[in-house]
Design goal:
Belongs to the ROK (NagC/XylR) family. InterPro entries: ATPase_NBD, ROK. It comes from Bifidobacterium tsurumiense. About 35% of the residues lie in helices and about 20% in strands. Strand 6 and strand 7 form a beta hairpin. The protein is α/β, with parallel strands linked by helices. It folds into 2 domains: about 130 residues, Nucleotidyltransferase, domain 5, CATH 3.30.420; about 150 residues, 2-Layer Sandwich (Nucleotidyltransferase, domain 5). It contains 9 helices and 10 strands.
């Protein structure tokens, strides 16, 4: 059982076998998955944190957590052949925050340098987005095996990823799939990225909490989602409106690319059928009337899925290639 109450994936790893790690760091905590080159997940665990910490504090917790997992397996940090780290902000290939305000306290030094200083070992890849890791998990695992997929991660903020010709499209500047920073209101609230009226300022967790405050008090996003699942009228209608707003915002991308599937994951997807129905109806109504061939399907919701996707990237893109 993992620390967040979910069952970990466990397989047997022969002594001396190649070992890789996928790591995810976000506002909720640290997720780590370790495994082998055949997509065998040896261990996957989640360590909750109270918000995204400063770089040095996060690394201390991360390294201690990783060492603990490896020790339980009878392995050491130096045995890791590949390490891929996913972070909740656009980064360049060296781990620098492309937009420093989106990752406060992490922009003064490179994550990779800090990681080497703390562990003596360099990560194989930095700057993979959390949404790309989830999309990679879906495509490599065969759950959604179609060639072209638009993945939308609807959680505290909105992000996404593109799978084109069966491969994750990373782009050249580290900001691919930042759907939450598409502008929906030029006169709206100032976003963490420095622009006004981004999608995140309208449907992100802080905005939804503010909308519910007058009638329901100080709720978390999880409270709102639970109430919506339980049939609370105000919460359910709000989440339907969120789905409609997301659909209107990503419609140009869908119409332009014409993907086989639009996959929606993240905690908001747990609202279920009303959320998906509102999204699909709005997307269908807004999109170009000819050539509609996509389906809207649910994606991964587990907090550990990002780490597992990062692990698969580590084994496929680093261990096998090198």
């Amino acid at each position: 059982m993992s620390r967040n109450g979910r069952h970990a994936w466990l397989v047997t790893l022969a002594a001396g076998s190649s070992l890789a790690a996928g790591i995810s760091i976000d506002d909720h905590g640290i997720s780590i998955a370790t495994g082998d080159a055949n997509h065998g997940v040896v261990s996957s665990r989640f360590l909750p944190l109270a918000g995204l910490q400063q770089l040095d504090t996060t690394l201390i917790r991360l390294i201690g957590f990783l060492r603990e997992m490896l020790e339980e397996m009878g392995r050491e940090l130096g045995e890791l052949k590949a390490i891929v780290v996913a972070l909740p902000a656009p980064l360049d290939g060296q781990g620098n925050a492309v937009i420093p305000n989106m990752l406060p306290g992490w922009s003064e030094g490179m994550f990779s340098e800090a990681f080497v200083s703390a562990t003596g070992k360099a990560p194989s890849l930095i700057g993979v987005s959390d949404a790309s890791c989830r999309a990679y998990l879906e495509t490599s695992g065969g759950v959604h095996s179609r060639v072209d997929t638009l993945y939308i991660h609807a959680d505290d903020v909105i992000s996404g990823s593109l799978v084109l010709n069966g491969k994750i499209y990373h782009g050249s500047n580290g900001v691919i799939g930042q759907f939450g920073h598409l502008q929906v209101d030029p006169n709206g609230a100032v976003c963490a990225c420095g622009r006004r009226g981004c999608l995140n300022t309208v449907v992100g967790a802080p905005a939804l909490r503010t909308l519910m405050m007058p009638s329901r008090g100080d709720l978390t996003l999880r409270d709102i989602l639970n109430d919506a699942r339980d049939g609370d009228t105000a919460s359910l209608r709000l989440m339907e409106e969120v789905a409609e707003t997301i659909a209107r915002t990503v419609e140009p991308v869908v119409s332009m690319l014409g993907p086989d599937e639009v996959v929606i994951g993240g905690s908001m997807a747990k609202v279920g059928k009303p959320f998906f129905d509102a999204f699909a109806y709005t997307l269908d109504r807004q999109s170009f009337p000819a050539g509609k061939s996509w389906s809207v399907v649910p994606g991964p919701e587990d907090a550990l899925d990002v780490a597992r996707g990062a692990l698969f990237i580590a084994t496929d893109k680093v261990m096998i290639v090198s």
